[in-house]
Specification:
There is one protein chain. The chain has 437 residues and is an alpha/beta fold. The chain contains 16 helices and 16 strands. It is globular and about 60 Å long.
């Protein structure tokens, strides 16, 4: 942060602000727009896409900007940017294609639509910051392959829990400890929640009921912890993660884990329900040097073998612009896959399902997501929940049963399925090459 703020100030002073286009103008998108426009010198939000242009306009007007122009072509968009107008459009690809945009913020939470946008942005050599763990956990590794080939940054964002975890993980490693657990603190976990049960909460905060449901039913935290696993190489200790219920401070949880098991697994991602500080994230780590362990004890971190580090908040949209600056100014990723997937999020029946039914989307009535180690997902042909929407059931499925590819017919012609197959093949061939080598 100390480096980023000065670098942005310099870009602003030079009259060369970082220019950003945003895909999505919902609850979180409007917050990002307000943050960039009013609190980030050296960065400009030059264009916003929404499926309904009035929603894109709202992102600007709520932030106090009125010099807005509706554009329908790349030429019109580039002209608006040159004239220092704020462009809005119902065509997301324009933002990916236009010259003069340094980075795209993708904030839709949609897998198929997001896949098209990210691929288009990469093709036009735009850095992409994703506030879309659903997409990242499903096909992030192969998207990263494309981004690397194009020489651009593809990254999750600061502020959301995965980014906060990764920043903490990097800090802990930087002072010489070995992280063995990346954790996320939740206030509620009930896999049977649905948009009806969550409607009141959603209305109170101006959010969509299905988005709130994905938080409550455990799907969202599964996506979040999966992308942390893919960025660190950590696994899950069991399907669905351990997910302890614990009402004390997270520091007190260091004795609840088997350190040798954590080491054997290469570290794990996990979550806890009810712990303090909430909301927050934590990293448990070890140190092999007895001299340094003595100092850690002196500094009130205890005798080990696990030491607790935590961040007691996550500020979501407030920090997203920092991620853009890290990518554009320093070519630094907040969080992206190391290589192939380590943990996936699999489809699980929320209710008894019947043959012939078509599965609804993430955070709705029919399914919830659980983390599972990717080796098992491949071996058992488990269906990623990021691909489940629109699938037609071939047979009855009992509540809490996990779904496989053999249980469904996939919709035809989806890019996300194509990329998932490409991801499977790419990293399978890399594994074979590594074994041969």
């Amino acid at each position: 942060m100390i480096i980023i703020d000065r670098a942005l100030e310099a870009r602003g002073a030079a009259g060369n602000p970082v220019k950003v286009g945003m895909i999505g103008a919902g609850f979180m998108g409007r917050g990002i727009a307000n943050q960039i426009i009013n609190s980030v010198p050296g960065m400009e939000l030059v264009a916003v896409f929404s499926r309904q242009v009035h929603a894109a306009k709202r992102a600007y007007t709520e932030a106090g900007r009125e010099n807005i122009e509706v554009v329908t072509s790349v030429t019109e968009l580039e002209a608006a940017i040159a004239q220092h107008k704020y462009a809005v459009t119902e065509d997301a690809e324009l933002l990916c294609q236009a010259e003069g945009i340094d980075a795209i913020i993708e904030v839709t939470g949609a897998v198929e639509f997001g896949a098209h946008i990210v691929m288009e942005a990469i093709a036009h050599r735009k850095h992409v910051i994703m506030m879309n763990a659903e997409l990242d956990a499903t096909i992030g590794p192969i998207l990263k392959v494309y981004a690397d080939k194009a020489g651009v940054i593809l990254s999750a964002c600061d502020g959301d829990q995965p980014g906060v975890e990764m920043n903490l993980y990097r800090f802990v490693k930087s002072i010489g400890l070995t992280p063995l657990l990346c954790g996320n603190i939740k206030g509620l976990q009930d896999p049977y929640r649905n948009p009806t049960t969550q409607e009141g909460f959603a209305k109170r905060w101006g959010q969509k009921a299905h988005m709130v449901t994905s938080f409550a039913d455990g799907t969202k935290i599964s996506f979040e912890q999966a992308i942390v696993a893919n960025a660190t190489g950590m696994k899950v200790a069991q399907r669905g993660m351990l997910g302890y219920n614990f009402s004390g401070h997270v520091d007190q949880m260091t004795k609840m884990y088997d350190v040798e098991q954590l080491k054997e697994l290469g570290g794990i991602v996990d979550y806890v329900v009810g712990a303090q500080p909430s909301p927050g994230v934590f990293v448990f780590a070890t140190h092999e040097d007895p001299k340094q362990r003595h100092y850690l004890d002196l500094y009130k971190l205890g005798e080990g073998p696990l030491y607790s580090f935590y961040t007691p908040y996550h500020l979501c949209h407030f920090e997203v612009p920092l991620s853009v600056a890290r990518a554009v100014l320093f070519q630094d990723t907040v969080l992206s896959p190391l290589a192939g997937p380590v943990v996936d999020v699999i489809t699980t029946a929320k209710i008894n399902l019947k043959a012939g039914e078509t599965l609804d989307g993430i955070g709705y009535y029919m399914t919830y997501g659980q983390c599972e180690n990717s080796a098992i997902v491949q071996e058992q042909k488990l269906l990623p929940i990021g691909l489940a929407e629109g699938c037609r059931l071939k047979r009855d499925i009992c509540q809490d049963q996990v779904l496989t590819y053999d249980d469904v017919d996939l919709p035809q012609g989806r890019l996300c399925d194509q990329l998932r197959a490409e991801q499977n093949a790419h990293f399978a061939s890399e594994k074979v090459l590594a074994m041969v080598g």
